[in-house]
Structure formats: C-alpha cells, structure tokens
Amino acid sequence: MEQSVLDRAREFHGHLGPYAVLGWMIGRRAVELLGGKRHFGIHTMVRCPDAPPPSCVVDGLQTSTGCTMGKRNIELIPDTDILVTVSCSEPPKQIVFQPVRETIEQASKIMREESDEVAAYWLWEQPEERVFTYTVE
After folding, report:
1. Which region holds residue 79: left if phi is over 0, alpha if psi is between -120 and 50, else beta?
2. Predicted confidence (pLDDT) per residue in 12-31, tens digit
3. Interhelix angle for 101-113 vs 116-124, to 10°?
4. How many CB atoms lie under 10 A from the CB of residue 43?
5. How much of the chain, in percent, has pLDDT values that exceed 90?
6. What are the structural domain ranges in the chain?
7. Longest dimension (CA), the chain
8. Which residues of 85-124 are buried (b: 16+ CB within 10 A; e: fewer)?
C-alpha cells in the first residue's frame, strides 16, 4: 500500500473516505493513460451528486490529476450517478470512467457500519477492475 498517497489524500481532503479514494484511483489511472500529463493540459469533468459523501470524489481527482477548481480545469456537474471524463488536447484523447456500482455500494455499507477510513482502506485494496471501468476515446 502506498501510505504516502493516502496521507496526501487525507491531508488535502481533511479525512480519508472511500469517495476521495475512488477519485484518487480514477485520477491515477487517467494520468497514466494520458502519458503522465498532470496539472496543465488536462481537463476533468465530474458528474456526481452535489453533496458529500459522493461529491468527495472531486477532491480525490484534484489530488491525483492536479486539476483544480482554481485553474478551472475541473468541473462538477450535479447528477445522480458518478461519471468522470478526463481529457487532454495534445494528443487529443478522452477517457470516461464509471465506478462499479456493487463495489461502491459495498464501500458505502462499510462506511455506514464501521467508518469512513475502514471503507477507504477496503476500497484501496480492491483490484482496479472491481472499482471502475473505463473507455478511451
């Protein structure tokens, strides 16, 4: 486990929860697929509920992609489900991520029954293919 990664996510977000970890995991994969582009040259569009805990995915994405509200290269569009699109212009590429519903429901259950942090660590330990799917366009 990359403890320093989770420490950075906790520091940025204020605590460690599964939705912030979800955002971090998606952002990490997006940066890898975009050839290591972070901070500038990429844009993240997040469709998700406009309230915590699901909206915490935005903080995980900011931490891992370097996209920030201040640079205006991340945007939140209120929606009922979570869908994340990360794109870059050079070379033109777009990746669409969708969480695996059953896994997120299990993380939410653990969060309710145990704690945010237990759910975050549980999610972190899951194989990527159990956490989200993606398509490269």
Report:
1. beta
2. 887 899 999 999 999 999 99
3. 150
4. 17
5. 80
6. 3-136
7. 45
8. bbbbeeeebbbbbebeeebbebbbebbeeeebbebbbbbb
pLDDT for the residue numbered 1: 44
Cα separation, 39 vs 109, in Å, equals 33
Output the six-digit token pair for 111. Answer: 């969060």
- 32-49 confidence digits (pLDDT tens): 999 878 888 899 999 999
Look up residue 107 and give its DSSP letter. Answer: H
In tens, the pLDDT along 49-101 reads 999 999 999 999 999 999 999 999 999 999 999 999 999 988 889 999 999 99
- Position 103, amino acid: T
Q: Are 28 and 64 in contact (CB under 8 A)?
A: yes
Alpha helices in the chain (DSSP H): 3-13, 18-33, 57-65, 101-113, 116-124, 128-131
Domain 3-136 has CATH 3.10.690.10: no
